[in-house]
UniProtKB/TrEMBL annotation:
Cofactor: Mg(2+)
NCBIfam families reported for this sequence: PRK00129.1, upp
Function text: Catalyzes the conversion of uracil and 5-phospho-alpha-D-ribose 1-diphosphate (PRPP) to UMP and diphosphate.
Domain Phosphoribosyltransferase: 5-205
EC number: 2.4.2.9
GO terms of biological process kind: UMP salvage; uracil salvage
UniProt-recorded name of the protein: Uracil phosphoribosyltransferase
Source organism: Rhodococcus oxybenzonivorans
Activity regulation info: Allosterically activated by GTP.
Stated family: Belongs to the UPRTase family.
Keywords, in A-Z order: Allosteric enzyme, Glycosyltransferase, GTP-binding, Magnesium, Nucleotide-binding, Transferase
Xref: CDD domains: PRTases_typeI
Cofactor notes: Binds 1 Mg(2+) ion per subunit. The magnesium is bound as Mg-PRPP.
Reactions mediated catalytically: UMP + diphosphate = 5-phospho-alpha-D-ribose 1-diphosphate + uracil
Length: 207
């Protein structure tokens, strides 16, 4: 599996704001929005384009458009804070939704929403979730996508634990990871260390 860590000073500054426990909900959401811009920008670097002639006020120039805009799939709740920025970068993108919450005891994902196009064959998919902890939520989401024919999935995350990266690798799914950081690991509550806390709670308040 290909893991791309977006290593850029502007991304590192925004990640610092998100890590900082003093950042309130509004500041956290703003930093997530801006960091999503950078992550999606990097995730689109190899996106195929189709060319066409565009007429400038002076002459004809080579123009491009995206050949295949990805389907964006925010994983609720925390991924909601990424979707508006991703859509504004890729206005042609369709959006699907998956909702799940981790069981606090078992740390396994409990799904409660699935709203996806039936047929994803030939369609790149970007899964948006700020956190890849055990990887259970991401692997569950990619299972759903692959069952619909997806063969080209990108997980766009803010922080990942090595355990989550390994889970993605072991899933055998066609996935690559774009993230701002791979952290040290998980604690006994399956929280990423040092991480940024619970990205859902930090955007929207506790459930
Ligand atoms: C968090 C996070 C991921 C998941 C990661 O969501 O946003 O979806 O946990 O953990 P995993 O890799 O171990 O599955 P949470 O369950 O807290 O729900 P929320 O987004 O509604 O806050």
């Amino acid at each position: 599996m290909n893991t791309h860590v977006v290593d850029h000073p502007l991304a590192a500054v925004l990640l610092t704001t998100m890590r900082d426990a003093r950042s309130d909900n509004a500041i956290f959401r703003g930093a997530l929005r801006r960091l999503t811009h950078m992550l999606v920008y990097e995730a689109m670097r190899e996106a195929p384009v189709a060319t066409f002639d565009v007429v400038t006020p002076v002459a004809v120039a080579n123009g491009v458009r995206l050949a295949q805009p990805p389907l964006l799939v925010p994983v609720l709740r925390a991924g909601l804070g990424m979707v508006e920025q991703a859509s504004s970068l890729i206005p042609q993108a369709r959006v699907g939704f998956v909702g799940m919450a981790r069981d606090e005891e078992t740390h396994r994902p409990v799904p409660y929403l699935e709203s996806l196009p039936e047929d994803l064959s030939g369609m790149p998919v970007f899964v948006l979730d700020p956190m890849l902890a055990t990887g259970g939520s991401m692997v569950y989401t990619i299972d759903l996508l692959v069952a619909r024919g997806a063969t080209d999935v990108t997980a766009v995350c803010v922080v990942a634990a090595p355990e989550g990266v390994a889970a993605l690798q072991e899933s055998g799914h066609p996935v690559r990871l774009v993230t701002a950081a791979v952290d040290e690991g998980l604690n006994e509550d399956a929280f990423i260390v040092p991480g940024l806390g619970d990205a859902g709670d930090r955007q929207f308040g506790p459930r």
